[in-house]
Amino acid sequence: MPGPGRPRAFDRDAALRTAMRLFWDRGYEAVSITDLTAAMGIGTRSLYTAFGSKEQLFREAVALYSSGSGTEGFCDLPTARETFESWLRDRADGYTRVDRPRGCMVVMAATNTSADNDAVRDLLAQMRNRDREMLTARLERAKRTGEVAEHVDARAVASFYLSLIYGMSTQAKDGYTAADLAAVVDTAITAWPHLVT
Amino acid sequence: MPGPGRPRAFDRDAALRTAMRLFWDRGYEAVSITDLTAAMGIGTRSLYTAFGSKEQLFREAVALYSSGSGTEGFCDLPTARETFESWLRDRADGYTRVDRPRGCMVVMAATNTSADNDAVRDLLAQMRNRDREMLTARLERAKRTGEVAEHVDARAVASFYLSLIYGMSTQAKDGYTAADLAAVVDTAITAWPHLVT
DNA sequence: TTATTTGTGCATCGAACGCTACACAATTAG
DNA sequence: CTAATTGTGTAGCGTTCGATGCACAAATAA
């Protein structure tokens, strides 16, 4: 139900998706407004009318990205091992899709920021930190059910697997194939029983 | 033995070290010439006279960085396990030093680059790739000596540990303590015997 | 001395940055 | 219809980007 006013002449969702791809591929500061408007097929003014600012557009792009690849869903799987294994495999696959930018947007899109844009860097850092808490909590829960031994350092094991995830983003950007990353995940999962008992 | 011409009024090595710190901390594109001259305490013209261009200065900074933290040295240790363990511990320690930028310059300093600076990104990608080849070769060597079982996928195991190294850079930037990363390394080393037999 | 060479400070270049003022177009509300 | 509201295109804002031209300073060489 559109109110009064001239209707938008482009598909906002499609334009946002395009912007997300660009930010995902190059990072926040490396994508210019000109890059965005060219790829989205709209004028500068339309971008600002629809999205407010470059930073707000980026925040929306990140929200769109994470809506399609949240870590929460994996935590509901019956065992911690299933949580970690399917989460790792899903990421390894997602990072090497031919139809998408490589690696993880949350890990890669704001690593090099000038002082003006620390807020953007911090946004992604907070999202990474939430994953850390989430996965640590999942392991703590597994300790209560007995799946994971009492003496295990849940935070250390969660950090260990997170480190792999972060690293696989760099590797995906470096051209590692889906099979390469799958082999990394296989190796990581081989270690699981020896880390939780 | 200085030739003719006015002598340089600043310490070139110290200035290069300062530039390295800046690039290491913020990344290539996020550091401006103004940032550099301010931190180095020299004028724009002196920077260009001494270093040529921003890209050449960056390349020198990377060379200085890698001269102090090459992976080669670890490969000479008697066993592959020592190579990987001391290499991991050295990195985990180096990424969390209070007197240095966090994380690894080669991993973090050129992840977000606009199309103009792909050469800089590729420079670091090549250095990462050399490490991959070096560590894979070290494991192949260990297979010949019998330390590592024949059936082991050397490339996969090397990639697995490299992924951890890359990930620890992100974690160091996220504020993980030296103890946090040491725990990640402990976890990774716990897995070693189960990955090579 | 004079010629040559190299470094420095100042002023600034053209280009790109994120962003916006303004006039106008296109819609709904009354 | 008119009024109100919102989107679009052009043209350009002020700033910063990496890099330079030029006059001068400070050294060596002859």
UniProtKB/TrEMBL annotation, chains A, B:
Q: Which residues bind DNA?
A: 32-51
Q: Which GO molecular function entries does the Swiss-Prot or TrEMBL record give?
A: DNA binding
Query: Which PROSITE patterns would you find in this protein's record?
Result: HTH_TETR_1, HTH_TETR_2
Q: Where are the transmembrane segments?
A: none
> One Pfam annotation, family name?
TetR_C_13
The protein's matches in InterPro entries, at most eight in alphabetical order, are given as: DNA-bd_HTH_TetR-type_CS (IPR023772), Homeodomain-like_sf (IPR009057), HTH_TetR (IPR001647), Tet_transcr_reg_TetR-rel_C_sf (IPR036271), TetR_C (IPR011075)
Q: What range(s) does the HTH tetR-type domain occupy?
A: 9-69
**Keywords (A to Z) from UniProt:** DNA-binding, Transcription, Transcription regulation
What protein is this chain from? AcrR family transcriptional regulator
The opening ranks of the lineage are:
Bacteria, Bacillati, Actinomycetota, Actinomycetes, Pseudonocardiales
